[in-house]
Amino acid sequence: NAGVTQTPKFRVLKTGQSMTLLCAQDMNHEYMYWYRQDPGMGLRLIHYSVGEGTTAKGEVPDGYNVSRLKKQNFLLGLESAAPSQTSVYFCASSSYRGSNEQYFGPGTRLTVT
Amino acid sequence: SQQGEEDPQALSIQEGENATMNCSYKTSINNLQWYRQNSGRGLVHLILIRSNEREKHSGRLRVTLDTSKKSSSLLITASRAADTASYFCATAQSGSEKLVFGKGMKLTVNP
To answer: Do the Cβ atoms of A42 and B104 come closer than 8 Å?
Structure first.
């Protein structure tokens, strides 16, 4: 099993450009999450999903959109990137109960210039 | 907003010593979890302790939970250089589908 994978690993965007980050999990987990990690800020939840076709806002959702069309995939979109979105983005998944342990992907390092 | 706060924010010890990290939180929880993050990698789950548990062991890890003080501690015994990483506590509030992570603390184990 690959666990949780993220694509791409690195990306540099110019302000105003758009992109989509892809998260895939092969553990048949219901719950999936997108976090951003900034120095001194820990992990902050952007959006999450409690099952295929569902999405919900987290702590810092502004400027991001998500979709969960298939159970195994969770996409994070930036429609118009801003320098404040420079961060490391982590995807995670969890089985039955969202408060169970979460399995993390390796992260995507995004720089917006 | 962070729920858990780790203390200390950084700790440097010698190999073989024990490392203790503390986490304080603010609201009632269903469980508390500890994660490790090696530099440039994703987080890895270490241990979960439920609100009705007071102590839990896993290998060289010992976690305690004091719900009256809203605090938890993670003890790593006989530390190794490979334990060098950032450690995060995360809380699951009752009825919530989410975890709330602290800002993390950096442990350095010197060989």
So the answer is: yes
Q: How far is A88 from chain B (nearest CA, A)?
A: 9
**CA–CA distance, A55 with A51 (Å, rounded to integer):** 8
- Residue closest to B105 by CA, chosen among B87, B89, B90, B91: B87
State how far residue B75 is from chain A, nearest Cα, in angstroms.
19
B15-24 pLDDT tens trace: 999 999 999 9
Residues 59-88 of B with CB under 8 A from A: 88
Look up tokens 């003080």; give the residue.
B69
Of A40-49, A70-79, A91-100, B84-93, which range is least confident?
A91-100
Q: What is the DSSP letter of A83?
A: G
Task: Tell me which chain A residues have a C-beta less than 8 angstroms from the C-beta of B33.
Answer: 101
Condensed to tens digits (0 to 9), the pLDDT of residues B59-71 reads 999 999 999 999 9
Alpha carbon separation from A97 to A9, A35, B8 (Å, rounded): 28, 18, 30
Cα gap B70→A14, rounded to integer Å: 44
What confidence score (pLDDT) does residue B1 get? 47
Determine contact: A4 vs chain B, CB below 8 A: yes
